[in-house]
Amino acid sequence: xxxxxxxxxxxxxxxxxxxxxxxxxxxxxxxxxxxxxxxxxxxxxxxxxxxxxxxxxxxxxxxxxxxxxxxxxxxxxxxxxxxxxxxxxxxxxxxxxxxxxxxxxxxxxxxxxxxxxxxxxxxxxxxxxxxxxxxxxxxxxxxxxxxxxxxxxxxxxxxxxxxxxxxxxxxxxxxxxxxxxxxxxxxxxxxxxxxxxxxxxxxxxxxxxxxxxxxxxxxxxxxxxxxxxxxxxxxxxxxxxxxxxxxxxxxxxxxxxxxxxxxxxxxxxxxxxxxxxxxxxxxxxxxxxxxxxxxxxxxxxxxxxxxxxxxxxxxxxxxxxxxxxxxxxxxxxxxxxxxxxxxxxxxxxxxxxxxxxxxxxxxxxxxxxxxxxxxxxxxxxxxxxxxxxxxxxxxxxxxxxxxxxxxxxxxxxxxxxxxxxxxxxxxxxxxxxxxxxxxxxxxxxxxxxxxxxxxxxxxxxxxxxxxxxxxxxxxxxxxxx
Length: 481
Description:
Elements: H1 4-13, E1 17-20, H2 29-39, E2 44-47, E3 57-60, H3 66-72, H4 79-90, H5 96-112, E4 115-116, E5 125-127, H6 131-134, E6 148-149, E7 153-157, E8 163-167, E9 170-172, E10 177-180, H7 187-198, E11 202-209, H8 213-219, H9 229-237, E12 242-245, E13 251-253, E14 258-270, E15 275-276, E16 282-283, E17 292-302, E18 307-309, H10 319-338, E19 342-346, E20 356-361, H11 368-377, E21 387-392, H12 400-410, H13 413-416, E22 417-424, E23 437-445, H14 465-470, H15 472-479
Parallel strand pairs: 1-2, 3-18, 4-12, 20-21, 21-23
Antiparallel strand pairs: 2-3, 5-17, 6-9, 7-8, 7-11, 9-10, 10-17, 11-14, 12-13, 14-17, 15-16, 19-20, 22-23
Domain 3-octaprenyl-4-hydroxybenzoate carboxy-lyase-like C-terminal: 322-445
Organism: Thermococcus gammatolerans (strain DSM 15229 / JCM 11827 / EJ3)
EC number: 4.1.1.-
């Protein structure tokens, strides 16, 4: 699919798109409608008339279900996407005899590389007078501090030339300034700090609105640095992303509906919030010790009849729950590169992704469960996960009842519960007194080796296979199978 418009047409052909003809406001009304539709699992929405913004239409709930995302990306399993870069890495030549056999794989890599183009439809129109007021940004909850860009594709490169396209909410201060909520552990924050240390002055930044579904998913994905996220977009999409270079030098998706060009003054900071977040609580600036950079919008480019895409969050399960599940599947193969013992992972939708993770492993030695707990907390965005439960490979992490049984059966709290005090946590966690400093909980619910039980051996009950064989005909007669 070339862009967001193709995706909307595809959704409509599947009867997964609601068109709303009545005029609604982007302040509270559209977000409330989107939440109700998502809670009812009724599909995506396209608002044809937007109060105060006659030039625009608004799309929402584009990530209707994991199954829809999978089919849109054209794969049998979402894990295939995470396997693509790994297969190419495996084929890199290690010696002279390997070089010829690797040429086909290197050509395959070229299919995923981004491509620079000289034209983009969004350059047809431009607004330079208070450009942020031109955009139908949402006010999603009554006590939000302002209107917000809630799914902006923040585009930038760091001083090393690594390109990024990421989603950070942006609170609009006025028609020309907004506050970018990139937390200290995010790529944007690190690039900003590098600019401050090396160059000072202005860091070129652009905000793209809307793109194809693969690029939208890439932007919110925890791609490990220093992998170029514009390259990773090619792996997710299945083909290289076309890019357009703005006058300020920033590369943006050529298929965007609109692009806001500007910069961050690297030493200009501001409070941000309140904002009703995905935990279902207001994230207030008075509760955290963080300030965020101010984005200066110089102009906005936009396509004819542009479509704004905004996501809404609140108590789960909303659109971000689908996004989280898709990311879970895509990044499982990459997690296994770091921890080969990992069998599967589940971020339960009511665990709001960063809150709870359940991981099954092939346990090989005493203490292996705790080793995995500590390793996960030291790996990428898993560093923010508050509660991790590790189970043995025969326990399905997606079956909560099996997980509860494993906790009840294999956990001796004084031995198997690990609490990490005063650890860096998700700055949005409503349970933490002084975010982003909180604590973490690890539960080793794996089956225990004798060494971990002081020699005690606990034997599980098992059916007699011969008895089951004799009863097989009766099972079929009375139970149908």
